[in-house]
Each structure stands twice: as structure tokens, then as C-alpha cells.
Amino acid sequence: MKARHQARIVALQALYEIDCAHHDPDLVLKHRLEETPLSRSAADFSRYLVEGVLKHRPVLDVFIHRNAPEWPLEQMAYIDRNILRIALFEFAVDGQTPVKVAINEAVELAKAFGADSAPRFVNGVLGSLVEQRKVIAQAAREAESRKRRAED
Question: How many domains does the chain have?
């Protein structure tokens, strides 16, 4: 299994626990990385995904909700919404992962960890978000700017 794929699995497991059990993100990630030893770069990538998703979760959730209105976020499976958050963070906010790679990885995670209908659901929602990636990136930058101004 490729290192970045394994890093995404660890990030997904951590985000799942943080989301449903509300455990401390730093402790959760520490424990996940102890359970699944990764190379330094893969561990850093996993940490980057978790921190990025948590930092931008409000913006990510707005766009996920808009593109899956029949599934309110609080009713969506924890695993599905966190797979969507990771992929959306990767291709829209961070922008370093090619769209096709992020979606393919998300679908693979949905196959491995989600319900039978999860891969199709994840693919459909992410497919509808691709055209909005610049708007999502802008919304994330604006939210970060507002937060910095509020802290000053």
C-alpha cells in the first residue's frame, strides 16, 4: 500500500474519532500514528490533512451541505462526511493534489470503510464540487482572514 494512501487512512480514522467522540485531535492523531507506523513524510502528510480539515471544516461543511442537500451533515455517516472533507480539502483548499487523484482516493476510502452506497455517494458529491473548487478556496482564504482579524 502506498504511503500517502496509508496516511489518508490514518487521517480518516483520526477525523472519524474526533468527529464522533469529540476526543482531543492531538491525542487522537498521536495514538493513530503509534498504532500505524508511517514514514516521517507520510506521518507529516496525515497530520497535515487532519489539521487542514479541522481548520477549514466550517467552510468545507457549507459546500458539502450545498451539494448533498438531501443528506444534512448531521445525518450523514461520520465516515462519509470525513472522506468528503479530506478530498475537498486536498483538491480545493490545499490545491496540491490533482482532482482525479483526490476523488479516486476518496472513492477507495469509501469502498474500504463506508457502506455499500458510499463510493457512489462520495463520487457524486465530489464530482459536483469540482467546478466550485476556486470558490471554495476563496471562501477558505476569506474565513482564515476573518479569523486572523478577530484574533488581533
Answer: 1
